[in-house]
C-alpha cells in the first residue's frame, strides 16, 4: 500500500511561522455543545442514561463507576493522566486494570464529544477557519497558526467537509483519502492547526514510530475498536495495528515512549510560532492549574518573544469575583513574560466574538495586515 495522500514535512513550511497565533481552549468548543473538562463526566453520565443515545453504555458505566468510586474530584484530563501513569506502575486502586480502563476511557471521550457536537460543521466555526485559511494563503496578511489544546474536530471539519487536505504542521497521512480523488492536490499553504494534546482522529504506528514519525489521521472520530480490523488502518510498512495518539496535559510518558515522538516536533513548532508572534489571540482558555505543562511552555516561549504587539484574551462574560480571579490568573502568568501591559480582555462568548466586527466592518479576530513599505526614490 502506498500512502499517496501524505503531507510531507517539506510541505508544512516549518521555518516560516510568525504573525498571528490563535490559542484555542475548551471554552471555544463549549459554545457549540462540546463538554468542558470540568463537566465532562456529567455530560457523559447524561448520555449514558439517555435511552436514545447510540453508545456502548456498559463501557461508559465501567469508567463512570471507577471515577465516582475512586477519583470523584478528578476532571477528565486528570483521570486520563492517572491512567497513563498507572499503566507504568504495578498496582491500581480499582479492580479493573489501567490498560483496560484506558481503552474504555478513550471510547467514552470520543463518544461523548461526538454525541455532544452533533452539528460538527458549525457555520460560525467554519466561517472562522475559512477566513483564517484564506488570509493565510492569500499573502495579504501575516503568517497564521492555530494552537489547539482540544481533542475534538470542530476546527478540523472545515477541511474535511470541503475536501481539502488539512495541515497539522507535521508529516501526516490521510487514511480515508487513499482512494479519494476528490481531495485537492495541495494542502492549505500556511495555516496550520497544531494540536498539542493529540486528536481523537490521530493514529501512529508503535513499531515504526522511531524511524518514521508520521501521523495517520481519519476524517471522523475513532470511537470503537473496529479500525483494528481495517487493513487501511494498519501500517503499510510493518502491518502493525495503528494506535491512537491522545496526550494528557501532563506528559507522563512523553520523554520515554516512542509513541509520542511526533508530539515533540509539534510542540517545537508551536514554540517557534509563539516566539515569533506579533499578535496572540487566546480563546476559551483559562490556564487551569492542571495544565502546568502548557503554562510553563507558554511563559518560556513569550519570554523569548521580541516582536509581540498585543494579546487578546476572549472569554465568556464574567462578573464580580469570578472576573477578578480570571483576570488575576492571567496577570500572574503574564508578569513572568514581560508582556503584561499588552494584554486586553474581550468578555464575549467565542461563537459571538468571531462574528463581531469593528466600526470599519473588519472582523475583530482578523489577522494583522502588514504595513505597506514605501520605496525611497
Note down, in words, how this protein is organized.
With 377 residues, this protein is of the alpha/beta class. The protein folds into two domains: 1-33 and 121-370, Rossmann fold; 40-116. It has eleven helices and eleven strands. The protein has helices at 26-30, 40-49, 57-70, 76-86, 98-116, 123-138, 157-161, 261-276, 292-303, 320-334, 350-353, and strands at residues 6-7, 19-24, 144-148, 172-174, 192-195, 198-204, 215-217, 243-246, 277-283, 310-315, 343-347. The chain starts with 5 loop residues before the first strand and ends in a 24-residue tail after the last helix.
Features:
single chain, 377 residues, alpha/beta, Rossmann fold, 2 domains, six-stranded parallel β-sheet, globular, disordered C terminus
- The topology string of helices and strands comes to EEHHHHHHEHEEEEEHEHEHEH
Shape call: globular
> Which strand order spans the largest sheet, edge to edge or round the barrel?
5-3-2-9-10-11
Q: Tally the beta strands.
A: 11
Q: Pick out the low-confidence regions.
A: 371-377
Q: What oligomeric state is this?
A: single chain
Amino acid at each position: 500500500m502506498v500512502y499517496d495522500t501524505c503531507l510531507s514535512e517539506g510541505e508544512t513550511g516549518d521555518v516560516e511561522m510568525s504573525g498571528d497565533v490563535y490559542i484555542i481552549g475548551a471554552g471555544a468548543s463549549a459554545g457549540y455543545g462540546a463538554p468542558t473538562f470540568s463537566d465532562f463526566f456529567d455530560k457523559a453520565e447524561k448520555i449514558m442514561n439517555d435511552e436514545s443515545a447510540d453508545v456502548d453504555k456498559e463501557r461508559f458505566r465501567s469508567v463512570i463507576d471507577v471515577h465516582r468510586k475512586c477519583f470523584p474530584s478528578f476532571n477528565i484530563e486528570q483521570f486520563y493522566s492517572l491512567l497513563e501513569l498507572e499503566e507504568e506502575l504495578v498496582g491500581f486502586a480499582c479492580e479493573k486494570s489501567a490498560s483496560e480502563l484506558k481503552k474504555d476511557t478513550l471510547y467514552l471521550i470520543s463518544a461523548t464529544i461526538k454525541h455532544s457536537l452533533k452539528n460538527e460543521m458549525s457555520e460560525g466555526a467554519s466561517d472562522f477557519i475559512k477566513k483564517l485559511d484564506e488570509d493565510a494563503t492569500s499573502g495579504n496578511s501575516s503568517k497564521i497558526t492555530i494552537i489547539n489544546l482540544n481533542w475534538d474536530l470542530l476546527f478540523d471539519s472545515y477541511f474535511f467537509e470541503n475536501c481539502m487536505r488539512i495541515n497539522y504542521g507535521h508529516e501526516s497521512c490521510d487514511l480515508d483519502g487513499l482512494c479519494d480523488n476528490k481531495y485537492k492536490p495541495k494542502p492549505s499553504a500556511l495555516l496550520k492547526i497544531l494540536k498539542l494534546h493529540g486528536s481523537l482522529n490521530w493514529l501512529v504506528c508503535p513499531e515504526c514510530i522511531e524511524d518514521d514519525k508520521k501521523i495517520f489521521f481519519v476524517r471522523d472520530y475513532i470511537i470503537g475498536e473496529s479500525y483494528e480490523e481495517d487493513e487501511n488502518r494498519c501500517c503499510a510498512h510493518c502491518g502493525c495495528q495503528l494506535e491512537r495518539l491522545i496526550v494528557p496535559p501532563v506528559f507522563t510518558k512523553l520523554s520515554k515512549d516512542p509513541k509520542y515522538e511526533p508530539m515533540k516536533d509539534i510542540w517545537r513548532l508551536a514554540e517557534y510560532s509563539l516566539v515569533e508572534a506579533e499578535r496572540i489571540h487566546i480563546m476559551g482558555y483559562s490556564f487551569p492549574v492542571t495544565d502546568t505543562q502548557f503554562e510553563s511552555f507558554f511563559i518560556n516561549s513569550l519570554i523569548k518573544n521580541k516582536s509581540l504587539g498585543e494579546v487578546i484574551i476572549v472569554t465568556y462574560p464574567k462578573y464580580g469575583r469570578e472576573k477578578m480571579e480570571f483576570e488575576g490568573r492571567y496577570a500572574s502568568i503574564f508578569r513572568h513574560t514581560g508582556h503584561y501591559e499588552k494584554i486586553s480582555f474581550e468578555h464575549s462568548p467565542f461563537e459571538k466574538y468571531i462574528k463581531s466586527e469593528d466600526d470599519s466592518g473588519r472582523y475583530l479576530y482578523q489577522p494583522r495586515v502588514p504595513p505597506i513599505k514605501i520605496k525611497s526614490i
